[in-house]
Design brief:
Structural class: alpha/beta
Mean pLDDT: 90
Pfam family, one: Phosphoesterase
Low-confidence stretches: 1-25, 31-35
Strand order of the largest sheet: 6-3-7-1-8-9-2-10
Radius of gyration: 18 Å
Helix content: 25-40%
CATH topology: Alkaline Phosphatase, subunit A
Keywords: Hydrolase, Virulence
Shape: globular
Number of domains: 1
CATH superfamily: Alkaline Phosphatase, subunit A
CATH architecture: 3-Layer(aba) Sandwich
Distance between the termini: 36 Å
Protein name: Acid phosphatase
GO molecular function, one term: phosphoric ester hydrolase activity
Organism: Actinomadura darangshiensis
Number of strands: 10
Largest sheet: 8 strands, mixed
Number of helices: 6
Order of helices and strands: HEHEHHEEEEEHEEEH
Length: about 290
Amino acid sequence: MRTLARAWSAVLLAGSLAAGCTGGSTHAVRPHPTTGSVPRFQHVVVVVLENKAVHQVMGRKDAPYLNSLARSGAWFTNSYAIRHPSQPNYLALFSGSTQGLTDDSCPHAYRSANLAGELRAARLTFIGYSEGLPHTGSSVCSDGRYARKHVPWANFPALPASANRPFTDFPRDYAALPTVAFVIPDLCHDMHDCSVAAGDSWVRANLGGYARWARAHGSLLIVTFDENDGSSGNRIATVFTGAFVKPGRYSEEIDHYGVLRTIEDAFRLARAGVSGSRSPVTDVWTAGRR
């Protein structure tokens, strides 16, 4: 028992050191058992909402659509953001690192590994679609309700301008989507400045069609939040819905690094930053394992 305790302490210490190297963490996520592989999807779409604790969204009447996705998909009841404020969490989800950033300042430029670069190296595709982005490849820090602090790929100059597009370019033919897409609503529709109901309605109107299509076309929708409302623990709502997903509530602890690792494993990509030390999600899949 003492040997086991020492081993587990070493795991926790390693996790703490990794978090410290990436700008700090408000919650230490323990590794969880892996029992299989992640399916290879045709497409993965990730939408990131803003600044809400779990109790502000899940089970609430003003978020009927997000709750319907939780019922038809996998709701991770112990999902956590990395830190406060917003921007480091977006960087963590995209690059496996907060890049040492502790604020929402702009602009920044980074050269480290990231999901888009990994996909390009594997001859796969990535596009980030941001509501309110003035034009493809824009490097502006803010414009109306658009905020670059929520658009991490804009901080990696090695990526092509074509990877950074307005949400108006999101294809109506979902088969034309890139391998992985991120969707960033504006400061109202991500719930940052407007109500939960406004964000819930926007997701239904703009991604509901994809959510239905994904189930029959080997694809996945991930809905998550950048951080909670600033309350203790930084627990957030995260839902996977689409093909191969077994509906239910899942209590294993995950964070943004673990979500990134799951996407990387779906396409057998290299692992960026701290994602390499996280376990992928493997227990929610009904089929499609390789």
